Amino acid sequence: MTFRIVVGSDSAGFEYKEALKKDLQADDRVVEVIDVGVQGGDADTDYPHVAVDAARRVAAGDADRALLVCGTGLGVAIAANKVPGIRAVTAHDSYSVERSVLSNNAQVLTMGQRVVGLELARKLAREWLSYEFDDTSKSADKVAAITAYEERATE
Q1: Confidence at residue 43, expressed as pLDDT on a 0 to 100 scale
Q2: pTM to 2 decimals?
């Protein structure tokens, strides 16, 4: 499988976003990397704007997944989850990254530059690309239930 990945960060996650972007661009499983910021001079852009932009691109089908970084990974996850159809998770360990895709069909992975070391973040991003949700798995009914709750909430 190949992916179109959106990357984004605030100023607190900028260095990791740049390193992870380079890794993704070099990965054969990634056909496109879309950087929604911040850029070097955009330090004043708040994370909700970047996270929602990235999540909207995934929800619209312009990208398959998004990788977002802020200080903790929590703020960008909360903001991305405000976009209908998006399941964003903060994960700083291999098992959680695996389950975020296999059990929850999360399209957005978030990390905290102030929480996890860079080499671990790079490892987790590589692992994240190796997982694909199985629509016939036991988890499919649970993901469908989440989707149904979301659809009822937006009616």
Answers
A1: 64
A2: 0.95
Q: Are 28 and 57 in contact (CB under 8 A)?
A: no
Dist CA 60 CA 78 (whole Å): 19
State residue 45's pLDDT score.
79
- Which of 7, 55, 58, 70 does the annotation list as catalytic? 70
What whole-number distance in Å separates Cα of residue 68 and Cα of residue 151?
25
Does residue 70 carry a catalytic annotation? Answer: yes
Q: At what angle do helices 118-128 and 94-102 cross, to 10 degrees?
A: 30
The 10s digit of each residue's pLDDT in 48-88 is 999 999 999 999 999 999 999 999 999 999 999 999 999 99
Q: Tell me, what amino acid is at 142?
A: K
Torsion angle (degrees, nearest 10) of CA 89, 91, 15, 47: 30
Residue 112 parent element (H or E): strand 108-112
Residue with tokens 């850029």: 39
